Amino acid sequence: MKAGREARATFLPPLDTMARMSEPTIPPHNSDPSPAGRVRALNFIEHIIEDDNAARKWGVDDQGNPKVHTRFPPEPNGYLHIGHAKSICLNSGLAKRFGGAFNLRFDDTNPAKEEQEYVDAIIDDVRWLTNDHQGYRFGGVFWASDYFEQMYAWAVELIRKGRAYVCDLSADEVSKRRGSVGVPATSPFRDRATEESLRLFAEMREGKHPNGSKSLRAKIDLASPNFVLRDPVMYRILHEAHHNTGNKWCIYPMYDWAHGGEDSLEGITHSICTLEFRNNRPLYDWFIDSINLGRGPGGGAGSESSTPIHHPQQIEFARLNLTYTVMSKRFLLALVKEGRVSGWDDPRMPTIRGLRRRGVPAAALRSFCEEIGVTTQESMIDVGRFENAVRDTLNKTAPRAMCVIDPLPVTITNWPEGTVDELDFVINPEDASAGVRKVPFSKEIFIEREDFMEVAPKKFFRLAPGQEVRLRWAYFITCTGVEKDAAGNIIRVLATYDPATRGGDSPKGPDGLPTKKVKGTLHWISAAAHTKGRVRLFDRLFSASEPGSRTGNQLDDLNPNSLNEVDALLDSVVAAAPAGTGFQFERLGYFYVDTDSTSERPVLNRTVTLKDTWAKVSAAG
Description:
disordered N terminus, Glutamyl-tRNA Synthetase, domain 2, Rossmann fold, alpha/beta, 7-stranded mixed beta sheet, 27 strands, Glutamyl-tRNA Synthetase, domain 3
């Protein structure tokens, strides 16, 4: 799993000066073609990279091109969600745009919460989202645990330099002694002798001390106004087997200590994080600067090597926040454990696994992440923008089919008995190369019950007594009557068809114009050739745009109507489709064949409706 790791020297600022990167100034519009063919201005990170490349800040690769190397570093303690998708698309997209490389690295520094199940899912989801790593050099899959030995050696080096010490305070005691604004933190072990800290740290590694009894802390500034710098913990004792290293280690590095070292070893040039790590950037720099202290010609006290290690640049951007969506791993895990959803891949979940099962294409996710852009301003993105990206993608790619959810029989009374007409059905009007297929039409068909009214209001343009409508790709029909049961319920519609309208088009007069016009077009299913199946009509998991904002409890805003499973009559082409096939059901939305589906009883998940029905609900108040 390891790849070659090149250490590069950098010119370092004085160690008493925390590296601070000012907010970039955006020059006037450079333009960049987006994947959808649109032209957009460069985002601020792309400007930074262009400036770095112009200055050859990170050197050049073996082809003579400026080096750009990014990474996505998830913790293997849960499934990825749509927020992670933005980071994956950003980091892999930068590698693609600048001809660079992209790594997938697992931050597996907490064995108590990590599982192989998550590892396998993350690798698969990243491959899926990036189109199997197309368009850039994939550096490979890496593990923080592969670097444990090097991290330990660096920690020893920092102790010898007087920049780290072993502290006997428990986690609770460290928290209590953290101080406040204007009041420094304290530790009675801060001035522990170097040799004693070296001995105790070795004993910690050897397993001679229980969990939580000691930690290794960086020796920075207990009075710093940035609380992150108040002697943060670098290592804690945790007697726990690790999925990758087994029982070799019983001390594990904290993320802030591991983060920069991992980036350095992999030659990452731009370490891109979300805004919550902005206050941690000085610590990121301090750790690498401290390792490099005394390195170079002549060496220095405590130095383990004369070669400075590579020092990447950390850059922060605003994470994705979506309306009607919660992305807390802890909350999502609770939904799964409490049975409020069927699992991590429940199609209502914001996990990539759930979105995939719902039928969201990877191209739609990439398009959405491109469209919302990259900034340093926290904002709430309307989930409707995501749904529109899904619609736009599927409209171009999804084959059309028909489905009737609440069937109402229709008898074409003037249709020749025993005759079946094989009609041309356009597979995708957006893609002429998809061609046509045949659908059978005969005397008995089904339409949606809501598409008929016996007593219709003025602007009801669907089927009603005496009213003519178009059947998609078939004929114009006119209602001539109904049949009712003993209770007065309509059980069948009677209609006549116009033979001259075959294909669903009006015949043209001498002037070349249509001889008749209809305002309503209905989808339908042949009574003689259909498949019975099950459709899952998914809606948003939450009924409030900001779940929990009203009561403080996000569970109070769970949408009780987020799933409605109904039987349906399906176009026979659907029965032959394997799991993972998507369709646009005319007038109903986009649907995806689920893994629960069989040829005898297809099961389909609604990916998204054809129109944003929630926008209408919101507008109505």
